[in-house]
Task: inverse folding
């Protein structure tokens, strides 16, 4: 039996660009699928096809048991959509926005009003409820957008990069909301650029690139494929690199890579934080001074290198070697992780158009 | 913490004329709220026609011969039908810019993913513009009275005249909607919504007696849908100048009927085109 979200051979082209090139998806009811991929991979296009915003060139999609192409309006009654660009009217207050959405879901005015109040309270927006949403912070606007998607408690939810551009605190808060939603039985398809996010929220992960699914499985399966954790050490003195390399080799489960220029050594390991502590003790015992050390988990880039042999393309601001910019990297010892990544919008999806560029500019 | 998993559900099935009207009113309310939050937009919409009244009355009044008269008072009365009609058609640009703006914001995705009537986003916008147009007309009529516009007809006829003006304005706002859906930016919609209005409103009987135009332009003016409404208003308001020769063209002989026919035709054609364009806009 097909799941709550099911797609078979979805193809969508924009001119010469095959944004979706035969995508199959199957999300069992009550589970979360993380759709992982870089900008321009086709994530947004897939969501737009499944939420009736785009008509695929070919293929079949069934959402909440309803054929998306044959009965789009029926599908719309069973889904909620929350995007990376808060889809709210900036001149309307939070309350007015939610009431409007409720009424457009065909709720009677009185019910829409009560539901709006409930959601504003739930998303800690009551204090700002009667201010135009223009005056909201990015995090508040995103919460309002999510609230709008939840007005009818739809059984199937789609979230397109819900945390892109949010600071860590707001990201954490949004994750909690999403987890609660899922524990209530909602089926969720979530797109993200962050492996950690998919790891945290999704039961299953699909990695897509150039409009194709290039890997699928649980987060553990993908990580195993990608090579698991590694320890990264930045040695203070260039002439101690050789000594440090020998020590790391003793802990490593594979070859140690050495970057002479940055004095950075990387070695695949198993054993997590406990092993990291041992490495630090050993380096200390040998008197090797270090500038930085950290346990690094596979990032989206690692997954991509491992799966496709190339660095995720179109990743402008999210540097390819970005231990700092990537939230998936464990905090390095002695320093908080680098600032939250800027919205990585170097190259919007082909269907994104002006809207995306414009909106991320703020 | 139960709000997320409670049983709030869409209760009414979508579809049907009732939900279509209801959705349009919900969207219209949204647009009207927006207008109150951006009052300068409404204000600029008011200043322009008022400026036209003052300029035409005092600059051209006395120099333009209408019917057999060069009297300033006759021109003022003659002029108002034209200014009223021009004002309602200029609302086209507002509708176009508003819709172009909406189409390039995330909110349109929200609307498109909701189980609402497909034309409601556009109908709601055009209805809100109609409210604004009515407000503008009211202010304009007061200004016109101040500068000496008079009407000696009964109240029902005057209301009928304003009814025709609103119908024309509503029909034209659908042209604006189509333009708004066809361009990439609100700025383009504003200029695209205005440029064609200049020849349309000037090659007409709005500011001059069409009998004085060169033959070629006179024919265009007499069949111009815009002229029809202007002529109908002058008839209904009793503002035709003494010695005015009603042209032989059919719409000029039956301006009220012709005005209704033109407006309904424009409304049907452009509403159909706009709704179709909206549906396929991002597919």
Result:
């Amino acid at each position: 039996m097909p799941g709550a979200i099911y797609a078979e051979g979805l193809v969508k082209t924009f001119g010469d660009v095959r944004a979706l090139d035969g995508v199959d998806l199957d999300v069992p009811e009550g589970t979360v699928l993380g759709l992982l991929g870089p900008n321009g991979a086709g994530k947004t296009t897939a969501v737009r096809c499944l939420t009736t915003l785009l008509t695929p060139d070919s293929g079949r999609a069934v959402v909440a048991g309803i054929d998306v192409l044959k009965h789009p309006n029926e599908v719309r009654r069973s889904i909620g959509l929350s995007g990376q660009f808060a889809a709210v009217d900036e001149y309307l207050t939070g309350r007015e926005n939610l009431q409007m959405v409720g009424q457009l879901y065909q709720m009677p005015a009185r019910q829409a009003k009560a539901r709006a109040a409930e959601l504003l309270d739930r998303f800690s927006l009551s204090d700002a409820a009667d201010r135009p949403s223009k005056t909201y912070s990015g995090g508040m606007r995103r919460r309002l957008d999510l609230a709008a998607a939840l007005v009818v408690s739809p059984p199937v939810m789609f979230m397109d990069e819900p945390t892109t551009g949010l600071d860590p605190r707001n990201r954490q808060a949004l994750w909690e909301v999403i987890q609660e939603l899922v524990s209530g039985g909602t089926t969720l398809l979530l797109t993200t650029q962050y492996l950690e996010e998919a790891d945290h929220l999704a039961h299953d992960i699909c990695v897509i690139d150039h409009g194709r699914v290039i890997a699928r499985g649980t987060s553990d399966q993908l990580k195993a494929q990608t090579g698991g954790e590694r320890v990264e050490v930045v040695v203070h003195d260039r002439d101690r690199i050789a000594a440090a390399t020998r020590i790391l080799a003793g802990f490593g489960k594979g070859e140690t890579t050495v970057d002479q220029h940055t004095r950075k050594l990387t070695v695949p390991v198993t054993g997590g934080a406990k092993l990291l502590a041992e490495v630090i003790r050993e380096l200390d015992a040998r008197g090797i001074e270090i500038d930085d050390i950290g346990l690094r988990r596979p990032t989206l880039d690692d997954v991509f290198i491992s799966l496709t042999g190339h660095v995720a393309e179109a990743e402008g601001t999210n540097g390819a070697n970005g231990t700092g910019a990537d939230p998936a990297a464990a905090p390095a010892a002695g320093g908080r992780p680098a600032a939250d990544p800027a919205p990585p919008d170097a190259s919007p999806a082909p269907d994104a158009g002006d809207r995306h560029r414009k909106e991320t500019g703020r | 913490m139960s709000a997320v998993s409670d049983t709030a559900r869409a209760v009414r099935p979508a579809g049907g004329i009732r939900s279509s009207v209801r959705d349009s009113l919900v969207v219209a309310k949204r647009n009207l709220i927006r207008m109150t939050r951006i009052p300068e937009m409404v204000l600029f919409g008011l200043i322009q026609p008022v400026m036209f009244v003052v300029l035409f009355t005092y600059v051209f009044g006395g120099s333009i011969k209408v019917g057999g008269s060069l009297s300033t008072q006759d021109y003022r009365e003659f002029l108002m039908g034209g200014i009223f009609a021009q004002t309602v058609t200029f609302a086209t640009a507002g509708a176009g810019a508003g819709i172009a703006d909406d189409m390039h914001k995330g909110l349109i995705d929200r609307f498109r993913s909701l189980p609402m009537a497909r034309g409601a986003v556009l109908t709601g916008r055009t209805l809100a513009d109609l409210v604004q147009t009515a407000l503008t007309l009211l202010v304009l009529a007061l200004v016109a009275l101040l500068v000496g516009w008079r009407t000696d007809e009964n109240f029902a006829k005057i209301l009928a005249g304003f009814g025709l003006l609103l119908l024309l304005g509503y029909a034209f706002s659908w042209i604006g909607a189509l333009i708004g859906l066809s361009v990439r930016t609100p700025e383009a919609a504003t200029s695209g919504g205005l440029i064609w209005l200049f020849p349309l409103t000037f090659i007409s009987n709005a500011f001059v007696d069409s009998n004085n135009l060169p033959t070629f332009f006179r024919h265009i003016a007499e069949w111009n849908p815009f002229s029809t409404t202007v002529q109908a208003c002058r008839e209904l308001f009793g503002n035709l100048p003494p010695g005015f020769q009603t042209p032989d063209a059919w719409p000029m002989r039956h301006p009220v009927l012709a005005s209704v026919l033109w407006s309904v035709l424009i409304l049907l054609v452009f509403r159909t085109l706009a709704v179709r364009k909206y549906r396929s806009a991002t597919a």
In short: Chain A touches chain B through 54 residues (CB under 8 Å).
